[in-house]
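Teaching note: in complex prediction, the entire set of molecules is handled at once rather than each chain in isolation. The prompt given to students was simply: 'Predict the structure of this complex.' The entities are:
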Amino acid sequence: MLLNTLYLPELREMIASDDREGLRDFCGALHPARVAEFMEGLDAQESWRVLLAADPELQTELFGYLDPQKQTEVVHNVAEAGDQQAISRLVVDMPADDRVDLLYRVDNSVVDELLPLFPRDDRHETLRLLEFPEGTAGSKMTTEVAKLSEKLTVREALEEIAHQSEDLETIFYLYVVDEGGRLQGLVSARQLVVHFRKPDTPIAELMQRDVVTVRANDDQEAVAEKVAAYDFLAIPVVDDERKLLGIITHDDIIDVLRAEATEDAHLAVGVAPLEGGYLDTHWFTLAWKRGMWLAILFFAALLTALALRNYEGDFQKAAWLVLFIPLVISSGGNSGSQSATLVIRGLTDGDVRLGDWRRVLKRELVMGLCLGTTLATAGYFCAVLLTRSALPEGADAVAIAAESPPPTMGEVLVVPITLLLVVLCGTLSGGVLPLVFQRLGLDPALMSNALVAGIIDIAGIIIYMTVAVWMVSGLG
Amino acid sequence: MLLNTLYLPELREMIASDDREGLRDFCGALHPARVAEFMEGLDAQESWRVLLAADPELQTELFGYLDPQKQTEVVHNVAEAGDQQAISRLVVDMPADDRVDLLYRVDNSVVDELLPLFPRDDRHETLRLLEFPEGTAGSKMTTEVAKLSEKLTVREALEEIAHQSEDLETIFYLYVVDEGGRLQGLVSARQLVVHFRKPDTPIAELMQRDVVTVRANDDQEAVAEKVAAYDFLAIPVVDDERKLLGIITHDDIIDVLRAEATEDAHLAVGVAPLEGGYLDTHWFTLAWKRGMWLAILFFAALLTALALRNYEGDFQKAAWLVLFIPLVISSGGNSGSQSATLVIRGLTDGDVRLGDWRRVLKRELVMGLCLGTTLATAGYFCAVLLTRSALPEGADAVAIAAESPPPTMGEVLVVPITLLLVVLCGTLSGGVLPLVFQRLGLDPALMSNALVAGIIDIAGIIIYMTVAVWMVSGLG
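The expected output is the structure of the full assembly:
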């Protein structure tokens, strides 16, 4: 996505000349998401000037489409300038879930300044939502939900919604509750419209009673999976007594799915989950989240050095063995990462289940044999060429040959045999380890490619040298 | 997700005893998505028996919730049993986009048997949709869209929708078209409901004219990004003359986003995009899609062997250098993969833009220095310990020491210096290469972790041996 700078000069000119009318017209002319896109090049102060010029009912919507980082900057900036009143009005008008998301990101001192300026009900609601830990259903829900009594008819329900709808984020599903606020069922806006010609139908007759719900403390990823599986537009959040607390809407679900995809991709290469974007994260935090894993992988790699130490003498007798160390470990690591990623994504997408472990094992055995044989064949010819052709000019060929003779055609077989075994070891462990993690109740994405590769590196060295000692004369 | 086998015995019993009433009640009792979940353990033939017992209006919906693989099996199975009539009735009732998705997966011979049994209009529509290549907006759209003439009032529009709505997948947005079918604007169902009390308002007054659209040939990923950015529920697909062809709805967008996340994760480890799930893909196809990349990475790794060949003599003079080969290349590979993934996901999520290349470069320089210094410090102490402590028992210590003396404290500095340089090289190239790919108009996800790691492996060897020749006496 390129920064859209098409109207940036015009916007800046209007800001500079304080052309409020021009700015207002600009804000009203396009979809708010598109206006926000054109505003991306502006700094926090300029953005605020544009927002102030927009029609009051557009301000909050426009603000909602700015990127999260810019929103936070605007709030900090305006609060610093002393205009708490104006910014709190804007923030309080946001849908409750977006408002809470924003307040999570704003400095606590500023939140403390803004909250007392909220109307009483909004303040209580915000405080209640802020109590749900980030990443739970409760923190993603909006409390502005269309609630209907089950005693209404279609006509009364339509009247009621027309009345409520100004405050609502969505009216696709209308939730029917009893007098205690407990969820009894749902009617869709579609059903109401379809029964527009039979206005006296009681909604209890149309209502679907088997409503799928989530609890406020459920993990947001599980909620997203549920919504995606059922093709829902929104899902109700209830407490232990089935009291309707709020709903989570499709746009938040899409955000969760994207955030989880990024988190999994990061875990795969050993980066602990970030809270903001790559460029927004403080370099020190980033260094810590990367360094932690890098250190673990580093100490895993040190084990390869420890393993190689046992064979120091062998490398002097058969120096050609050194050539293929990186080849052997990278072939194992690559095939292992492939298997791990295929199984991890399969688990995430629901294509693979724990009960499929036999099929996974069989599949990876076939893959290992098939890919391993291919690489082994190619590896044999390359190894023969590399070890038997003349040494590069300048190398002290005679001296080397005296102490470490080139391998015979038979001895070169060490390379292909090792490649086959290492690839097999890679595919099998890459396929099985994520399932083991899942079985233990851990996130299979933790069994990152980097970790699989680290394990295979050590196994690769041991396999390579064991085969070598067994096949090359004079070693061991 | 565990296979839900809760009701499997009851279902099987009802099938065996041909208890159609029981099956019908079962199908009607819960949300169709949940019924489909309970049916997952059944084979294609059993599933068909359950579907046949369900209420006719439920059959297609239930079938739509079965997983894609099972749907395809059912179609093949029923067609083989000779009941083309029944299965074509089921398939033709599906929303157009889901129907086309299914037919893409069914054998061509079966498609040719079913198509002539479709009603004429459905057949033409299906054939037209099948012409759009998979992965385009056209292949994901449904043609069942709520179209209104701009001359209607709110009351007339409500009447019209109540009339059309049986055939519609969604009525959240109602599209207003002129007589030539060209898109003029949209009204939301919500607006109609809100204006329920002012039924004579012309919809032209409520209509939003600046409608964001996509073209039928647009890439599905770009479409999904657009919908996610604007928080839309559906997006209209138009042709070059802005004629409304269909819409793509939120559930298809979620599917696209998930499929793209999986595709990117696969590319990252060098697996060419799969069409089905991991377990559904034929082993031969899978072997090909993995093997292709594995072969490319293998030949990249072969270059390390070629590079090492120049230093064969040096390893005899300083055998301890061999110990750290895997450590050096894996440290570089790991830090490079981290950087590449952070930048690739940043580009996908819109946090990083091409114009940010200077910030990315600066950031990765800082990361490289910071992480490299840490690993170098740890590496120095470990290297000193490993090279200066007594050799493991059984190793021919005296003989080795004569030909290849242990390094001095100064010579061991080769390891930390190399680690710092390699990590720096990893973070910088991992950060910049995806941006270069993006700039060249290629998918940055192609600059996979595996490929970055492959490049760093070669760089790592060259850096290591260059530093060694420069610092260790008697080499080169």
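Point out the following to students. The first helix of chain A runs from residue 8 to 16. Chain A has 24 helices and six strands.
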